[in-house]
Design goal:
6 helices; single chain; two-stranded antiparallel ribbon
């Protein structure tokens, strides 16, 4: 498949031509996490993750749709192993894979509003995995000065080459929260430092 290598080259070109600043809202440390970013931030957030955790074994829950195949192949090039499935299709199987990955020491990456939205909605997946595994959540967001924004459901963001990107990194605990409380709290944290759509 030709498309994933092209996407990967584009990702890396934007990464290396941009200036970047990492804002650590909280320390991340070496503790294992469940990792999240919004679906429209998928071009840069996995690269930020791999920059911070260069050698940490990791997997990502990716939808079984065709566009999921493109994302899965691209993330593979970053050393992030795909787990195919979503909250609507193959949910039970992919959740079992996720817990198996966590038990083996991997961090699991999830887009809470993927694969079909609505944009910036909060599904049960990331929160449920974090609560059950008793792991904190590694939140990755970014803002960039110059970017293109697609007309897709998630208003996918593509930073322009040679722009400046601010990454916002934080570790949050969901200890003692119910599923619904945790979903509201995580959503609030993820919305603090994200790009609003230009309508």
């Amino acid at each position: 498949m030709v498309v994933p290598p092209v996407i990967y080259v584009l990702m890396r070109f934007i990464w290396y031509t941009s200036t970047k600043k990492f804002h650590y809202i909280t320390e991340i440390g070496e503790e294992q996490h469940v990792c999240v970013c919004w679906h429209n931030e998928l071009l840069m957030s996995p690269q930020a993750y791999r920059h911070i955790h260069k050698k940490q074994p990791a997997s990502a829950i990716i939808s079984s749709h065709f566009d999921g195949s493109l994302i899965a192949s691209t993330l593979n090039m970053l050393g992030i192993r795909p787990l195919r499935g979503s909250s609507k299709k193959g949910a039970r199987q992919v959740l079992l894979q996720a817990f198996k990955s966590i038990k083996s020491g991997e961090e699991v990456l999830i887009t809470p509003d993927g694969p079909r939205g609505p944009r910036h909605s909060m599904s049960d997946g990331a929160v449920g995995i974090a609560l059950k595994s008793k792991l904190p959540i590694f939140v990755m967001n970014y803002k960039t000065e110059k970017f293109w924004q697609l007309g897709s459901w998630d208003r996918f963001v593509i930073p322009k080459p040679f722009t400046h990107i601010d990454f916002y990194i934080q570790s949050i605990s969901l200890d003692g929260m119910t599923l619904e409380e945790a979903k509201i709290y995580l959503s609030q944290k993820m919305l603090e430092n994200t790009i609003e759509p230009s309508d």
